[in-house]
């Protein structure tokens, strides 16, 4: 019998600059008549004790989700690690009984329904504190599992060491990979370009919301 995942807070990371999409918020683009963000929320929320959104700028544009919008608290655009740190800090402050945060890119409309449980299983099996997703042999460092207990270490790496690369920081602590097949639909497909939106529409038409 698979061990149940401990209580975990989910965060959808929507802090990117969307340069390849021509600016704007990638997760607010639509496929199948619904925003990518709505699809990501629908998949991740049932797996978590609570769900928040990491985004910078005016939070009002995400009001339709009903989610708490948590901005980066590291100066400048520090990338995904800053969003993860913001989520860890929010969890420590607002939900102190929760010891884990699972992050996912907010522009991934096909997130797996067993995402959180398999991340926990991978880090338990490897006896390391961190886990990230993998599909088709490719790691997805932004889509991962983070212990709240490492937030001060992460803050030091970001603020003092000016570290931006996720892999550099996770290598210090040990990270497991939870693997999913990339076919028929890669569960970590993300929409970076207008061409990706068209591909997501095609995949949705072929395979639905399975």
3D structure, described in words:
By secondary structure, the chain is of the alpha/beta class. The protein has a single domain (8-207), classed as Alpha-Beta Complex (Spore Coat Polysaccharide Biosynthesis Protein SpsA, Chain A). Helices cover 32% and strands 22% of the residues. It is built from 6 helices and 9 strands. It has a 7-stranded mixed beta sheet with strand order 5-4-1-6-8-7-9, sandwiched between helices. It has a two-stranded antiparallel ribbon with strand order 2-3. Helix 2 (80-94) runs antiparallel to helix 4 (151-159). The radius of gyration is 16 Å and the shape is globular. Mean pLDDT is 92; it is low at 17-23.
């Amino acid at each position: 019998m698979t061990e149940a995942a401990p209580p975990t807070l989910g965060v959808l990371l929507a802090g990117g600059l969307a340069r390849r999409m021509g600016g704007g918020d990638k997760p607010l683009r639509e496929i199948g008549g619904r925003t990518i963000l709505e699809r990501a929320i629908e998949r991740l929320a049932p797996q978590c004790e609570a769900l928040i959104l990491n985004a910078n700028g005016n939070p009002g544009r995400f009001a339709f989700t009903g989610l708490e919008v948590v901005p980066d608290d590291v100066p400048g655009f520090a990338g995904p690690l800053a969003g993860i740190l913001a989520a860890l800090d929010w969890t420590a402050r607002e939900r102190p009984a929760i010891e884990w945060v699972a992050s996912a890119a907010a522009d991934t409309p096909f997130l797996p329904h067993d995402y959180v449980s398999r991340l926990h299983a991978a880090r338990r099996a490897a006896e390391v504190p961190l886990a990230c997703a993998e599909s088709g042999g490719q790691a997805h460092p932004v889509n991962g599992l983070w212990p709240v207990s490492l937030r001060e270490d992460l803050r030091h790496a970001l603020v003092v060491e000016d570290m931006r690369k996720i892999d550099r920081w996770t290598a210090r602590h040990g990270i497991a990979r939870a693997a999913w097949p990339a076919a028929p639909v890669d569960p970590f497909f993300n929409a970076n370009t207008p061409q990706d939106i068209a591909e997501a529409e095609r995949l949705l038409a072929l395979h639905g919301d399975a």
